[in-house]
Design a protein that fits this description.
The protein is an alpha+beta fold. The protein is built from three helices and nine strands. Strands 1, 2, 3, 4, 7, 8 and 9 form a seven-stranded mixed β-sheet that branches. A two-stranded antiparallel ribbon has the order 5-6. A hairpin with a 2-residue loop joins strand 2 and strand 3. Helix 2 crosses helix 3. The radius of gyration is 19 Å and the shape is globular. It starts with a helix and ends with a strand.
Length: 150
């Protein structure tokens, strides 16, 4: 039994090492736009092969969170994501996964009401959770990944 377990672990480790991709030569990092004279310490997007990884977005316009509650913030957040996708020659049709952070999980139904209108072909895989605090006291933050260049 111990020998079988040892062989299984060796097979797993070999597979992990052989098939774990290194940072591809075609990986591109797109810095986030400066806020005033401060450059944020993250990229707005990273393209690695045919995947586009977007930074999280909140419902800001002109540097401030939009007024109007969760629905207004969700709309602005999704519009911001759409603009980021467009800058990288992608659209919501290319999105395969999103992660959603809500300041209040009770606002999940209102969030979904707006969110679902941005996906015409399919809904991406998604995870949502409640957070105790988001940047700029936002009600929602959404991060998406898209498959591009199919």
């Amino acid at each position: 039994m111990k020998l079988a377990l040892r062989h299984s672990l060796i097979a797993f480790a070999t597979t992990f090492v052989l098939f774990t991709p290194a940072l591809a030569a075609d990986t591109e990092f797109f810095p986030a736009a400066p806020v005033g004279n401060i450059s944020p310490p993250f990229s707005e997007a990273v393209r690695a092969g045919n995947m586009l990884y977007l930074a999280g977005a909140i419902g800001v316009d002109g540097g401030k969170v939009v007024a109007g509650g969760i629905k207004a913030e969700t709309k602005q957040t999704m519009d911001n994501i759409g603009a980021n996708l467009a800058r990288h020659h992608a659209s919501f049709d290319d999105v395969v996964q999103c992660t959603v952070a809500l300041a209040d999980i009770a606002e999940w139904p209102a969030f979904n009401e707006v969110y679902k209108g941005y996906f015409k072909k399919h809904y991406p895989a998604r995870m949502a959770f409640a957070a105790s605090g988001l940047a700029l006291n936002a009600r929602v933050e959404v991060q998406c990944n898209a498959m591009i260049g199919k």
